[in-house]
Write the structure tokens for this entry.
Amino acid sequence: MESKKQTYSIVVEMENAKSLDEDEVGVSFTALAREIERATADDQYTKPELIIVHSGPNTDTPLLQQRMGELVPQLGTVTKLVFSACTGGRYYEVKNRGAELATGDVVIFADSDTKAEHGWLSTLLKPLENPSTTAVSGYTYLDYDDFASRTFALLWFFPLRDGDQRFASRRAMTANNCAFRRTWLVNHPYPASNGFKVSCTLLTSQLQASGDDFVRVDARAGHYPPRGWRFFFWRALVTGRDADRKFVALESPSRAGRLLKATRRWFSTSWRVGKRFITHAPQTGMPIWQIPFALIVGLVFSTLVFLAQAAMALGLVRDEPEHVPLYVGHS
């Protein structure tokens, strides 16, 4: 008797349809459609369910559906399309809404600003054919094309595309490039947090605590580079606040301990930044004369992270839900 084929659902979060960046979204979803077509071509997997969730009002859903149909018409052929709104939802809330709608044996999370490389989907799904595997994390890297984006790529919490496996091996689950067995995910949605990018670390901790550690695979996806110095300053500050939130959630609420952690992190991060820029900057194509300037930017970033983390630890900043400010713009 032929065994039942494993089914899967892909959840993609995106912003309000009115703020859709059609160039980026078109490239991202075209790459996703290509991967789905390849994965189903040999009849190994059934046609998947693609759940696209946006954070705008319900009235925007038909508009989003229409625009996606115009941008990437092949999606309607290679997937079973589902559109939904999570009005006012933040990043992980939107993902949780999509997971609630999923019916596949496996739930894959991707983002509308990432571009899957060849073999991404099948590489992500393969380990879950083993019944003992609960979760799989792919390899997301930051794209770059100028001085600012190369500097971001060297600073970022994603590893570089090449030659950065040691850093990648220590990363928590990557929320824009991962897969879960749905039976586990139903009882373990992304935890609630006021942080901007904290819930993926908390979920990783839950996964490891349950004895169901995740498998890292070389399922590569590029992330569009952040743009603008306003984003740079805001992202540094929110990174510091998030670091304090993670310490409180996973280690201790002690203000003294939190301040000590912020100080130790400042020194270790500054050292790591210097080492990464000297070691990896040339492979990004950054000219040698730009490296000292990039290093200064990196140390400024680390200092801003420290100041924000210390401010949270000392109670100078209230722990409120993080939102991307309007002044930051598209990033």
Remarks:
- The CA atoms of residues 24 and 113 lie 6 Å apart.
- The radius of gyration is 20 Å.
- The chain has two domains: 8-223, 229-328.
- The mean pLDDT is 91.
